[in-house]
Amino acid sequence: MSTTPNIDFNSVYGPVKSWRYGRSLGVDPIGARSTCSFNCVYCQLGEIELKTSDRQVFVPTTKILQDLQAFAPWDVDVITISGSGEPTLPLNLGEIISSIKQLTHKPVAVLTNATLLNNLEVRQALCLADKVSVKLDAISQQQLKLIDRPVEGINWEYIWSGLKKFRVEYTGGLGIQTMILTPWNRETKTEYIRLMRSLLPDEIQLNTPTRPKPLKYQLEARGNHSSAADRPYKVLTFRQVSPDFISDFATEISAATNILVRHPLSHESPVS
Ligand code: SF4
Question: Among 161, 90, 179, which residue's Cα sits nearest to residue 126?
C-alpha cells in the first residue's frame, strides 16, 4: 500500500447544489491528480491523468477529517464522496465513510462507476454509505468502450455482475446514474428497461452532459463550474440530448418499471 503525498490540496469542497441530493459538501478521497478506472469522453475533470483500477490510499483519512473541521457545523443535506476520480479506488474508503458519519452525523453519499463492485471489500465499504449512485452509461461492451473507455481488464459483463452482487447486499438508497450523449434507438432503450427491471434500483438518474470538459485536469472542476465566469480554462462543449428526449424516456422507464426516474433538465439552476 502506498500513500501519495496529497497534503497541500483541500480534500473538501463546496457546498455545491446537487440535483440528485440537494445541498452537498464534496469530499475528494483521490487528490490533486485525477485518477480513474474509466476515462469517460464527457468527464468534467478532463482527460484522466492516471488510468488505473489498482487500489491504494491516496489521501489519509486524518487529512480528510481535518479538512472537514473547517466546514463545521456542516449545514448541508449530504456529504458526497466523489472528487478527482473513482472513489472506490482508495483502500481507506470504508474508514472515510464511517469517520465522516461519526464526525458530522450527516448522511453520506458515494458516486461510483461500478468497475470495482466485484471486490468484496469495496462492496462492504459502500454498504456503510446512506446513498450510492452508480454510473451505468452503457448497455453493451461496444457502448462502454465508446463512452466510458475503461482500463484494460474491465468489460461490461464484469461491471454488470458486480452491480448485481451489490444490489443484493446493499440496503441503502441505490441510484443508477445514466449519461446519454446521443438519442438512443428503440433497441437500446428496450434493453436498458429490461436491465433496470431485473436490477430494481431505488431510483434512476438520467442526465446529458450539461458541463463542458476541461482540456486539462482542473481541481476546480470537482465543484459546480457550469458558467464560463467560473472557469478560466479551456473547455470542450458537448451537444446535449434534447430535454424532450430525456423526459419522454424517463416517463417510459417509470411506466415500464415503477422505478422513480429523475433528471436535472426540469431544474432551472446549474447542477452537479
Ligand atoms: S467515471 Fe467519473 S471521474 Fe471517472 S472518467 Fe468517468 S466521469 Fe470522470
Answer: 90
> Which residue has cell 497541500?
8
Ligand 1 near 28 CB (within 6 A):
no
Cβ(115)–Cβ(37) below 8 Å: yes
Global pTM reads: 0.90
3-state secondary structure of 246: helix
Bridge-based pairing state of the strands 108-112 and 78-81:
parallel
CA 208 vs CA 63, 72, 172, 246, 263: distances in Å? 34, 33, 25, 8, 9
CB contact at 8 A, 72 and 123: no
Per-residue model confidence as pLDDT tens digits over 213-224: 776 776 766 765
Cβ of 36 closer than 6 Å to ligand 1, yes or no, is yes
**Residues 264-269, mean pLDDT to the nearest whole number:** 56
Check pLDDT > 80 for residue 255. yes
Pick the CATH number of 12-266 from 2.60.40.2140, 3.20.20.70, 3.40.605.10, 3.40.50.2000: 3.20.20.70
Q: Which of 28, 35, 39, 40 to mutate to test the pocket of ligand 1 (most atoms within 8 A of CB)?
A: 40
